[in-house]
Amino acid sequence: MSFLDRLRAAERRADSLLCVGLDPDPAKFPAPWTGDAGRIFDFCARIVDATKDLVLAYKPQIAYFAAHRAEDQLERLMAYLARTAPDVPVILDAKRGDIGATAEQYAREAFDRYQADAVTVSPFMGFDTVEPYLRRPGKGVFLLCRTSNPGGADWQAQRLADLPGQPRLYEHLAAMAETRWNRNGQLGLVVGATWPEELARVRALAPTLPLLIPGVGAQGGDAAATVRAAWRGTPEGGSTAPIVVNSSRAVLYASAGPDFAEAARREALATRDTLNAARRG
Ligand SMILES: O=c1ccn([C@@H]2O[C@H](COP(=O)(O)O)[C@@H](O)[C@H]2O)c(=O)[nH]1
């Protein structure tokens, strides 16, 4: 099954556009786990148990594990997800980008070591650095396109003077990903919920690609505006090309107390319902 089909099936099953980001920060864990990096797996597993029927994807961010020498706990978490939420695709947020030979190793890391269904990749170094990921036909590859951070426009919004129409860099990337670069239908794009107008532009240029959209919740992106900008429905109520709307901190740290998992569920449910109301409204 292709990654795109897995996403579509997960969207249908959970009736959800929500992706919960797994960004475990021990400093924010509830007592008695506060500050204990040895509890990263336990914390994430509780979040997964509390939300797995509400999401169309999970997105672990690798830095939150590597920074604590907790890659072994990420491996355990990936195995736990495969066992307890086998139908929920997992997107490893790694944002790798390097020459082809090194990219091959990064692809092995994401898909063989961690068994991720998809990975985020920086396209800054060009197509030959993306191509190694495209040798894994069942796997998804989300290219950074118009990122959610305030400085995202520094490069991504610059115009390319040598190209007809002088598109902005992120527009050219969206057009390439929709066409020439998307050899096996594996590509998607990362676009921030914090830029709804650019999000609508990307959707117009890349109507068939899945979009990974971080920035709702802690970064203040508007969930309903995100759906209006990027969601395109089928007559049956599904998506023509899924949108994967990520929220990490707002869900993970909805409560700092022993009820953190229940609070995470409430926040995930509320966000899922807001997203669904916007696509049906
Ligand atoms: O443009 C981007 C690309 C990736 N991210 C990642 O998404 C989450 C967002 O976390 P919140 O707590 O919901 O703000 C995080 O892992 C980022 O590394 C992004 O924010 N923007």
UniProtKB/TrEMBL annotation:
Gene Ontology terms: biological process: 'de novo' pyrimidine nucleobase biosynthetic process; 'de novo' UMP biosynthetic process
Pfam families named among the record's database cross-references: OMPdecase (PF00215)
Biochemical pathway: Pyrimidine metabolism; UMP biosynthesis via de novo pathway; UMP from orotate: step 2/2
This protein's UniProt keywords: Decarboxylase, Lyase, Pyrimidine biosynthesis
Enzyme Commission number(s) of this protein: 4.1.1.23
Active site: 95 (proton donor)
Domain spans labelled Orotidine 5'-phosphate decarboxylase: 17-264
Reaction(s) this enzyme catalyzes, per UniProt: orotidine 5'-phosphate + H(+) = UMP + CO2
InterPro entries: Aldolase_TIM, OMPdecase_AS, OMPdecase_type-2, OMPdeCOase_dom, RibuloseP-bd_barrel
SUPFAM superfamilies, sorted: Ribulose-phoshate binding barrel (SSF51366)
Domain of life from the UniProt record: Bacteria
Entry-linked PROSITE patterns: OMPDECASE (PS00156)
MF terms (GO), sorted A to Z: orotidine-5'-phosphate decarboxylase activity
NCBIfam families: pyrF_sub2
Family note: Belongs to the OMP decarboxylase family. Type 2 subfamily.
Name of the molecule in the record: Orotidine 5'-phosphate decarboxylase
Organism encoding this protein: Aquariibacter albus
